[in-house]
Design a protein that fits this description.
- The complex is a heterodimer.
- Chain A is mainly alpha-helical.
- Chain A is 60% helix and 5% strand.
- Chain A has 9 helices and 2 strands, in the order H-H-H-E-E-H-H-H-H-H-H.
- Chain A has helices at residues 19-33, 39-54, 60-84, 120-141, 143-146, 152-158, 163-192, 204-235, 253-275; strands at residues 99-106, 113-119.
- In chain A, helix 2 (39-54) runs parallel beside helix 4 (120-141).
- The radius of gyration of chain A is 25 Å and the shape is flat.
- Chain B is mostly helical.
- Chain B has one domain: Arp2/3 complex 21 kDa subunit ARPC3 (Orthogonal Bundle), CATH 1.10.1760.20.
- Chain B has helices at residues 11-30, 49-58, 60-78, 84-98, 111-140, 144-181.
- The chains are: A mainly alpha, B mainly alpha.
- Chains A and B meet through helix 1, helix 3, helix 4, helix 5 and helix 7 of A and helix 1, helix 2, helix 3, helix 5 and helix 6 of B.
- Chain A: It is found in: Membrane.
- Chain A: This is Energy-coupling factor transporter transmembrane protein EcfT.
- Chain A: It comes from Leptolinea tardivitalis.
């Protein structure tokens, strides 16, 4: 079983920024965009998100799997949640809305009335939802493709996480290939005993019962080996002093500029949404029928 | 049972947090072929039992890191990106399961101990799903009934089934190892 990270060196603009600055930018972007339902502002965030995404020089082919998942979520959220049932737009849209179409239908035999009411406001809100979700997705989907996994431990240490927690993250990334190999060995051993992972069928409970012969040995084996690693680390006085890191990065001038931009984005978003109330739902007047 | 404080984070906890996270990531990635249809942002992961189990055995902090970090690494491996509120929900599942020590867990086998662990697993799954569903309201603008139908329910059903079946199996297996090795 070959476990590979999605990251590879692309010599992109995004890679020239310090990972800490990129994480902070991404998280502040999430907070900032979440303050708005106004399409004009969401469009600005959308353009910013995809400019950031493009700076990573990652092809669509590489990220296709993630976008398929996002498209499915968007379909559920917008088509089913907002357009069909109208539930997704509740609490955000104004009380007075303007219908595009109203269908009344009665269920045969029972006589139950069913009313479908699609409004201009709901369609406009669907656009706002789409812009917002796609922008957030573009910011976060790109992370695994553009950030070196070796730098996660140091990055989170630099963002204020405790030394031991940061080292735990670093260690987890190193364990992945080892555990994937153990999983592969266990799978082969179980196959030699007649286990067929390709034929994991039946209901949920049946599937779990069939997966257990894989999960239990791999877990127990890793716990046993963990005791040896703990003893080895204790013998080398782990945790007595702050640790040093093999892979490090430095803050450069461009990272400072990115942080300044991030700070301005956050402050502007808070002021615009809370003081000037630009965060609420907005729709162009020309779209509303007389 | 370990007599240390459940909030201590020494070398042992560092190592088992890392192992828990890596295990959760690898097993999630390896069992990606099991998908639940029509459930937004939710996959059927038997591996979700790993952070719960690590929480029960090694404490809430190890459980939290196993779930939080394991979900991040699993999504990195699968190429799904980074979804902080779902990562947090996975961490919460491990964290709450780890609080079972406060209910007087005395071992890893026997009906009493397994029942206590199961109760905390249920609470953990419900709290975690509520956090993730509430976050979707904030981020995506969906209302409460929609997020209950598309996020909360599809999250709790498979996680409860996985946790309630697999964690007791893992606990009994671990008890055998612990008693044999004297750990």
């Amino acid at each position: 079983m070959l476990v590979t990270w999605q990251y590879r060196i692309r010599n992109s603009l995004m890679e020239t920024f310090d990972p800490r600055a990129r994480w902070i930018f991404s998280l502040i972007f999430l907070v900032s965009i979440s303050l708005f339902w106004d399409v004009r502002f969401l469009a600005v965030f959308f353009i910013l998100a995809f400019a950031w995404y493009a700076s990573a020089r990652v092809s669509f082919k590489e990220t296709r799997r993630a976008w398929v998942l996002i498209a499915f979520i968007l379909f559920m959220m917008i088509f089913i949640g907002t357009i069909i049932t109208g539930g997704g737009a509740a609490g955000i849209l104004p009380e007075k809305t303007h219908p595009v179409v109203i269908w009344n239908w009665t269920v045969p035999l029972t006589g139950w009335p069913i009313v479908f009411r699609l409004t201009y406001e709901r369609l406009w809100f669907a656009l706002a939802q789409m812009l917002r979700v796609l922008a957030i997705s573009a910011i976060f989907v790109i992370i695994p493709y553009s950030m070196d996994p070796r730098l996660y431990g140091f990055t989170f240490r630099g963002m204020g996480f405790h030394d031991r927690v940061a080292y735990s993250m670093d260690l987890a990334f190193r364990y992945v290939p080892t555990l994937a190999r153990d999983f592969s060995v266990t799978l082969d051993a179980q196959r030699a005993r007649g286990y067929e992972i390709e034929r994991v069928e039946g209901g949920l409970i049946a599937q779990i019962g069939k997966i257990a012969p894989l999960i239990v040995p791999v877990t127990m084996n890793s716990i046993i080996s963990g005791e040896d690693v703990t003893n080895a680390m204790d013998l080398r006085c782990f945790g007595i002093k702050p640790r040093t890191w093999l892979e490090k990065t430095d803050f450069h001038r461009r990272d400072v500029y990115l942080m300044i931009f991030t700070g301005v984005m956050l402050i502007a978003s808070i002021v615009l949404s809370t003081v000037f109330h630009f965060g609420v739902f907005w729709m162009p007047a020309w779209l509303i029928p007389a | 049972m370990n007599k240390k404080s459940i909030w201590s984070f020494g070398t042992r906890e560092v190592v088992y947090s890392a192992i828990g996270a890596a295990l959760y990531a690898v097993l999630s990635w390896a069992t990606n072929f099991l998908q639940i249809p029509a459930a937004g942002n939710v996959a059927f992961r038997p591996a979700v039992a790993i952070p719960m189990f690590f929480g029960v055995v090694f404490g809430p902090i190890v459980g939290f890191i196993s779930g939080f970090l394991g979900n991040i690494i699993g999504d990195l491996l699968s190429g799904y990106g980074f979804w902080p509120w779902w990562d947090l929900a996975n961490g919460i599942m491990g964290f709450v399961a780890g609080l079972v020590v406060l209910a007087g867990l005395k071992g890893y086998k026997g009906w009493s101990n397994i029942f206590k662990a199961e109760v905390f697993i249920v609470i953990g799954v419900l709290v975690a799903a509520a956090e993730a569903a509430a976050s979707e309201i904030w981020v995506s603008g969906v209302d409460v009934p929609t997020t209950i139908a598309t996020n909360f329910v599809p999250t709790i059903i498979p996680n409860l089934i996985n946790g309630l079946i697999l964690v007791p199996i893992l606990m009994v297996a671990y008890d055998a190892i612990a008693s044999r090795s004297g750990r």
